[in-house]
Amino acid sequence: QVQLVESGGGLVQAGGSLRLSCAASGRTFRIYVMAWFRQAPGKEREFVGSITWSGGSTYYADSVKGRFTISRDNAKNTMDLQMSNLKYEDTAVYYCAAGRQTGAYDSWGQGTQVTVSS
Fold it and tell me: In sequence order, what are the beta bridge partners of 1?
């Protein structure tokens, strides 16, 4: 099993920046891809972006493209989400996830709250 723990959430003004981090432990050798998802109140969980663990290839949802950047540090088993030019609609609980193939995430973190004030 892979355990994931997010950190770095908080309150930020619109237009500001925030950096989230996800620390992976356990059977990290099984990870092929990691991703960020988010869920706003009353809405379904949505995909934010992903990164392949070895090659570092990234993919982003259109809603965050150009504003969010995902990176990973294989040596530290961490994945970061740098969020810039934050908007009110980015307010959500952000989750990191890991999987052995793209689109199939079987490990999830507990989530971290991001609140953007307008």
Answer: none
Q: At which residue do the structure tokens 């991703």 appear?
A: 35
Q: Rounded distance, CA 25 to CA 37, Å?
A: 19
Q: Which residues contact 83 (CB under 8 A, 6 or more apart)?
A: 17, 18, 19, 20, 64, 67, 68, 90, 114
Ordered DSSP codes for 36-74: EEEE-TTS--EEEEEEETTT--EEE-TTTTTTEEEEEET
Q: Residue 51 carries which side chain, given as an amino acid letter?
A: I
C-alpha separations of 55 from 13, 91, 98 in Å: 34, 30, 15
Per-residue pLDDT in tens (0 to 9) along the chain, 118 residues:
899 999 999 999 999 999 999 999 999 888 899 999 999 999 999 999 999 998 889 999 999 999 999 999 999 999 999 999 999 999 999 999 999 998 899 999 999 999 999 8
Beta bridge partner(s), residue 96: 36
